[in-house]
Design goal:
This protein is an alpha+beta fold and 127 residues long. It is built from three helices and seven strands; from the N terminus they run H-E-E-E-E-H-E-E-H-E. It has a seven-stranded antiparallel beta sheet. The two termini are 18 Å apart.
Length: 127
């Protein structure tokens, strides 16, 4: 179960840093739009991106979300990918995220194929 305060932070228009472990073994971090449901942190990306390939290779991730109004208020979730969602649901989700962060629908490219990564927390903390 995702902590209620962390869920609220992730559902607000706050950015996150997603850290993944690619096949090289050297962690890489991406600043991302983020979302959450009752159980998972949700990361939406395009299939084939480096972060997607890394999560497919190694499901261990860390997501840090900071409050846009007070960056000293933040949450960290260490967990692992437990599922993915593709197709129309992932496309609708990226549009919802785009509206949350920019006020407009997502500008899909001709080859965009979206995927939502569902991250179950193993450890979570909020400051």
């Amino acid at each position: 179960m995702l902590d209620h305060a962390i869920k609220a932070l992730a559902q607000a228009p706050n950015f996150a840093a997603l850290t993944v472990i690619p096949a090289s073994g050297h962690p890489m971090t991406h600043v991302m739009w983020v979302d959450a449901d009752d159980e998972h942190m949700l990361i939406n990306t395009d299939l084939g991106r480096a972060k997607a390939t890394a999560m497919d290779h190694d499901p261990r991730v860390t997501v840090a979300v900071w409050d846009a109004q007070n960056p000293y208020h933040y949450a960290e979730v260490r967990g692992h990918v437990v599922g993915t969602v593709t197709g129309d649901e992932a496309a609708a989700h990226i549009n919802a995220l785009a509206r949350k962060y920019t006020g407009a629908d997502y500008a899909f490219g001709p080859t965009d194929s979206r995927v939502i990564y569902q991250i179950r927390p193993d450890r979570q903390r909020i400051q």
